[in-house]
Design a protein that fits this description.
The two termini are 44 Å apart. It is built from eleven helices and two strands, in the order H-H-H-E-E-H-H-H-H-H-H-H-H. It has helices at 6-20, 32-39, 43-55, 76-93, 98-119, 122-130, 140-157, 161-167, 176-182, 185-203, 207-219, and strands at residues 59-62, 68-71. Strands 1-2 form a two-stranded antiparallel sheet. Strand 1 (59-62) and strand 2 (68-71) form a beta hairpin. It has 233 residues and is mostly helical.
């Protein structure tokens, strides 16, 4: 049986206190000497535990008279990046396939489109409109960026902030060279059409139509042999 390093054990103990709510966002952790005294560990071990927690975005450390280590405030962007990295590694290793990826998209995006249609506010419609692209003149980078922005805007329009965090990794994993190779102009014209139709359904608050369009968009993205290359589309 492998015994975890002492710094990892300490980090897990502090992590449990944070996740259980015993340590709240913004709350100061005990000082390094206090942690050493309480845990019986050396200062270098305590510092290694704090570095690990910092790399996991669970604490932030500040220097100065009022410095110290504090429980981090929730940061959706940082959490989204961590999720994206993890999903990207799973795809690269082959542990997750393109079909797995699109199956999850169907599970999340279809009901999300319905919720967006039911709950959208005027500012959500403005965000969706800003995410439109020109399939004839915009370059590939802009098209991929706009595509991600559109689907994230749909998630935001549901009013569920957790959904926005969960779906973020689904739109940050495109292999741009592969996308360019397997997505000719007709593909982007179809994506543009799908987005505009979905926007109008959400604008009209037509829940059933929005869900139908979201399902069709995912099902028609690419033939199965290309799924692994263009999963973020």
């Amino acid at each position: 049986m492998t015994v975890a390093p002492a710094y990892q054990v300490l980090a897990e103990r502090i992590r449990d206190d944070i996740m259980s709510g015993q340590l709240r966002p913004g709350e100061r952790l005990p000082t390094e000497p206090q942690l050493c005294e309480k845990s019986g560990l050396s200062r270098s071990t305590v510092r290694e535990a704090l570095r690990l927690l910092s790399s996991q975005h669970l604490i932030v450390t500040m220097r100065g008279v009022n410095g110290g280590s504090f429980v981090a405030e929730p940061d959706a962007s940082a959490l989204g990046e961590t999720l994206s990295d993890g999903v990207g590694l799973l795809l690269a290793s082959g542990a997750v396939t393109g079909e797995d990826f699109l199956e999850v998209r169907r599970m999340l995006e279809v009901p999300a489109a319905g919720l967006a249609a039911a709950r959208r506010e005027p500012h959500h419609l403005a965000e969706l409109e800003r995410a439109m692209f020109d399939p004839e003149h915009d370059d590939l980078a802009r098209r991929i960026e706009a595509h991600a922005a559109f689907h994230l805007a749909v998630a935001a329009a549901t009013g569920n902030s957790l959904l926005g965090l969960v779906v973020r990794p689904l739109y940050s994993l495109a292999n741009r060279e592969a996308v360019e190779r397997v997505s000719p102009p007709p593909f982007w014209r179809a994506v543009d059409r799908d987005h505009r139709e979905l926007l109008e359904a959400i604008r009209a608050q037509d829940v059933a139509r929005a869900m139908e369009l979201a399902r069709a968009h995912i099902d028609n993205i690419r033939p199965a042999e290309h799924l692994a290359d263009v999963v973020a589309l």
